[in-house]
Amino acid sequence: MRTGVPRGFQSDRIAGFIVILTGLVVAVEARGFTVGFVTDPLGPKAFPLLAAGLLLVGGVALVARPLSESSWPARQAWIRLAVGVASLVAYATLLSTLGFFVSTTSAVAVFSLLLGGRPLPSLASAASISAVLYVLFQYVLRIALPIGSLFLRGGQ
Amino acid sequence: MESISLLLDGFAVALQPVNLGLAFCGVLIGTTVGMLPGVGPINAIAILLPLTFATGLPPESALIFFAGIYYGSQYGNSISTILLNIPGTASAVVTGIDGHAMTRKGEAASALAVSATASFVGGTLSALGLVLLAPALSRWAIKFGPAEYFALMVFAFSALSSLAGGSLPKAIAATGLGLLLASIGLDPQSAVPRFTLGQLRLLDGMDFVVVTIGLFAISEVLLMLERTDGGARSVRSVGRVVLRLRDLIGTFWTMVRGSVVGFLVGVLPGAGGTVASFVAYSAEQRMVDREGTFGKGDARGVAAPEAANNAAANGAMIPLLTLGVPGSATTAVLLGALMGLNITPGPLLIERNPEVFWGLVASMYVGNVILLVLNLPLVGVFVKVLQLPRWILMPAVVALSCVGVYAVNSSALDLVLMTLLGFVGYIMRKANFPLAPVILGLVLGPLMEKSLRRSLALSGGEWSILFDSPIAVVLWLLAIASLLLPFAVTIGGKKLKSSSRR
Lengths: 156, 502
Prior knowledge:
The structure holds 2 protein chains of 2 kinds. By secondary structure, chain A is mainly α. Chain A contains 4 helices and no strands. The radius of gyration of chain A is 24 Å and the shape is flat. Chain B contains 20 helices and 2 strands. Chain B has a two-stranded antiparallel sheet. The N and C termini of chain B lie far apart (48 Å). By secondary structure, chain B is mostly helical. The interface between A and B is large, with 77 and 74 residues.
């Protein structure tokens, strides 16, 4: 039961607890940053401990005095968010295999569909965006983008 | 006066064809992105950072380009605020009160013209202000030791955390997160790997571009995924935007007053365009609103915050470049861009890199002129851009983000980190955490740690060195004062809110 806690401030409290938890993990981890020899009076752990301290202070203050409520999305929206995040992770994983053009077109098309675009126009706009970026980076700025190991024979 | 000749040198820099072209492109890109809800100047600068580094532009040219995006976006932001009442950033919220009311009365063209003119007046007067103020600052530029630098950076954090508004605990936690991100990687002094999770790539630390694009651009796209209505917004056509003499006469002194207020607020470390526009609007309202027309489409209600906002953008260059204290998330990103160009902001910057400082001031002025002569006739085109459907626009932001992040290190792990930070940024935004302190922590963290450890190495571990010099003591006091300030200002803020509701 949430007795005595104003329901409106739940998300600030939860956020506070997450911040505290992060601070604790950082602090525990930072205590292990030691060197055998003395480089300077503070050493490598002081600054991460300061960061942990700020996280703990902010988190505790938030749990003690939560200030606002946030409106969290409905379940449908969470699914779209999950698909979006997953497609970005898949993009990172498959980029070197599928190459820039195929991966970017697919990822961008997924986002177009998620944002309410119809299938064919989404694919068309995704392909044109990817093509423009490919030309811009590969030929104008001369930053090499992956061609895709799948399309290269013998792995070269 | 010496500063006038330096300013003329600055104009010589800004008027070079390359820089003029860059200012033009920057202003144009800035106006476009500033207008599009969800893109915004931060994302534009973050995405364009790797591109600019790749082209190998000299620092002052790159800076002119970014500054062009910055103030172009302020104007673009005004367009979407006035026409659609969607302020992209907090600094345009006040403009919307009377600006959108004018649109509903069918005076959109007039409101846009007043806003452009007010921005121009604000830019002009604040450039003059910089000429007057900079020499005094150069004289003040004494040698800062590591202890003073540390105190200065503590002040930067407390100023940004408290003056940017919002909840202080959340700002403190966000600062902690920024410092945590800054300490990832190999510790430069002892070569101890910190928070690298066994990943070789992380030994180099978190890249600024990855963090900024993740936190801002990707989180913005994730926010957009919440809503399903994929269509474009309907905007009534605006017609020709010309400044009528009647509007100019009626608002001229408002613009001048707004500029002065905006410049003074902008010079305060940590207070940016948001504070400036609020203060200017409420001051103007108290001063001239005798018939109670403010809030019902009074052109002066547009002129005051717009002039103040632009003047503050100029004034804010002083704390940004000389102290490294940004007044908003956008200027925090601008600060990161500066560091990427090997320009370390500090008390000596005006002395050591006059071409950067004065070139920037002059280019802001040139940018203002470009905005005035170019954007007024082009408003119709910009309105068309506003009608671009979200299912084309936001996926394009995703593609630009991915390719921008990949271009930095050609690393797939960076893309994963970008996604992770995008999700963290999304949660932080939903829970009303400010993102600017994270960026500031990441940008200033390494410098802050170095000065802290160097000062304690100098003193042999005595913490008292941090409070030894008068400058350091003053900075510590300022840091404490800025943390206490919101409690004093709350009363004034409540006054404004209740009066604008009328």
